[in-house]
Design goal:
The protein is an alpha/beta fold. It has one domain (3-12, 76-339): TIM Barrel. It is 44% helix and 15% strand. It is built from twelve helices and eleven strands. The chain has helices spanning 19-24, 58-67, 88-108, 124-136, 153-156, 160-168, 193-214, 218-221, 236-250, 273-283, 301-306, 313-339, and strands at residues 8-13, 31-34, 40-44, 47-50, 72-76, 113-117, 142-146, 171-176, 225-229, 265-267, 288-289. The protein has an eight-stranded parallel β-sheet, with helices on both faces. Strand 9, helix 9 (236-250) and strand 10 (265-267) form a beta-alpha-beta unit. Helix 4 runs parallel beside helix 6 (160-168). The chain is globular. It starts with 7 loop residues before the first strand and ends with a helix. 45% of the residues are buried. The mean pLDDT is 97.
C-alpha cells in the first residue's frame, strides 16, 4: 500500500456482533422496537433514533469507508448506549460474543476493521477477566469505558482494579461519554436539547475527563495503558491558557502541567479544521488521529476536517495515519512482551 494514501478512522461505533438480537429481546432502555410505520428505532438513554443498517452491518460501513478513501477504521462497542452497564448475569455472555466477533472482523477484513471491546462493568471481576482475554487471546487493541467514571479523581478510583488488569498486557482505552453502572441520565435541558447536550455539555465533559487523567497518577501507575480522549479533548484547546493563568495567579508554586496533555491521544470526531488547528498547536500532530463518529455522523473526517486545515503536509500525514499506526505498533509490542 502507498503509505501516502493511508487514512485511519479512530472513532466509530458498531452495534452488530449479536447485539441486535439482544436489544430486540429487551423491553427497557436500551432496546429496539418497530414503529407503526415499520421503521426500527433504538430506544436509548437520551431518546430514540432510527436504527439503520449502518449501525450493525459491517459490509455497509466498510463500503462507505472505502468510498471515502479511509483505509482502516476502529470500531468500538457502543458504550454510550449503556449495554455494558446492565446486570452482568444478563449481558456478559453477549458482550463476550460481541468481542469475539470484533476479532473475527479484523481477520476477515485483513485488518481494515479493528475493534475496541466492551466489558460487563456491573461485575468488576468479570470485567477484569474479559480485558485480559481480549488482549491476551483475541489480540484486540483495547476497550471503551464510560467517561463518567473519570469525571473526578474519586470516581476514577472505582476503575483501579480494571486499570490494573488492563495494564498487564498493555491496553488502549477510549474514554467515551457514558453513564456509570446504576447512574440515571441527567435531567434534560429545557430547550435546544441536542445542542446543549451533544455539543456544549459533551465537550465540557471531555475536558473534565482529560483533566482527571493528567492530574492523577494514572499515566505513571499504569504506563502500559494508552488513553484516548474523544473530540480533541473537548474545550481544552480553547481554555488551557485560562487554566494556566488560574494556576499562575492562584497557585504560583504549582504551575499547571500542560505538558502532560501530550501523554494522551485524541481524535477529531465530528469536529472541523479550525478546532483541529487549535488542537495541533496544543497537543502536537503526533497525539491526534482522524475520527468520524460513524454512523452517528457520516462526514469523511479527512475531507471535512483534515484536508482544509491550515497544517503542514507532514502534520496532515501524521494525523491521517501515522499517529494511529505508531499507537497500534506500540500496543502490540507491549502485548508480545507480556506474552513472552
Amino acid at each position: 500500500m502507498d503509505q501516502s494514501n493511508r487514512r485511519i478512522d479512530m472513532h466509530s461505533h458498531f452495534y452488530g456482533g449479536g447485539l441486535v438480537d439482544t436489544l430486540k429481546a429487551r423491553q427497557k432502555r436500551p432496546y429496539l422496537r418497530t414503529r407503526e410505520d415499520g421503521v426500527i428505532v433504538m430506544i436509548a438513554m437520551n431518546g430514540e433514533f432510527p436504527f439503520t443498517e449502518h449501525y450493525y452491518d459491517h459490509h455497509v460501513g466498510l463500503a462507505e469507508m472505502r468510498e471515502a478513501g479511509l483505509t482502516q477504521r476502529l470500531l468500538t462497542f457502543p458504550g454510550a448506549l449503556g449495554v455494558d452497564l446492565l446486570p452482568a448475569n444478563e449481558i456478559s455472555a453477549a458482550i463476550s460474543k460481541y468481542n469475539d466477533h470484533l476479532a473475527q472482523l479484523t481477520q476477515e477484513t485483513d485488518g481494515a476493521l479493528i475493534g475496541l471491546a466492551g466489558l460487563p462493568l456491573d461485575d468488576m471481576d468479570l470485567a477484569c477477566a474479559e480485558v485480559k482475554r481480549i488482549r491476551r487471546d483475541l489480540g484486540l487493541p483495547g476497550i471503551i469505558l464510560p467517561s463518567n467514571y473519570f469525571n473526578t479523581l474519586e470516581e476514577s478510583d472505582e476503575m483501579r482494579p480494571l486499570l490494573e488488569a488492563a495494564n498487564e498486557y498493555g491496553c488502549h482505552i477510549m474514554l467515551h461519554p457514558g453513564l456509570k453502572v446504576g447512574q440515571e441520565p441527567p435531567a434534560r435541558p429545557a430547550d435546544n436539547v441536542q445542542y446543549r447536550l451533544s455539543a456544549i455539555e459533551l465537550q465540557s465533559s471531555a475536558a473534565q475527563v482529560a483533566m482527571t487523567v493528567i492530574l492523577s497518577d494514572m499515566l505513571d501507575a499504569y504506563s502500559n495503558i494508552t488513553f484516548q480522549v474523544v473530540n480533541l479533548g473537548g474545550t481544552l484547546p480553547f481554555i488551557f491558557e485560562r487554566i494556566e493563568s488560574i494556576a499562575r495567579h492562584r497557585n504560583p508554586d504549582e504551575p499547571f502541567p500542560t505538558e502532560r496533555l501530550r501523554r494522551l491521544w485524541y481524535d477529531c470526531a465530528s469536529l472541523g479544521p479550525r478546532a483541529l488547528e487549535a488542537a495541533v498547536k496544543l497537543f502536537g500532530a503526533d497525539r491526534i488521529m482522524l475520527g468520524s463518529d460513524y454512523p452517528i455522523f457520516k462526514d469523511d473526517p479527512f475531507a471535512h476536517a483534515l484536508a482544509p486545515a491550515d497544517l503542514t503536509d507532514d502534520e496532515k500525514s501524521q494525523i491521517a495515519w501515522r499517529t494511529a499506526d505508531d499507537l497500534f505498533t506500540h500496543l502490540e509490542k507491549l502485548r508480545q512482551r507480556a506474552l513472552s
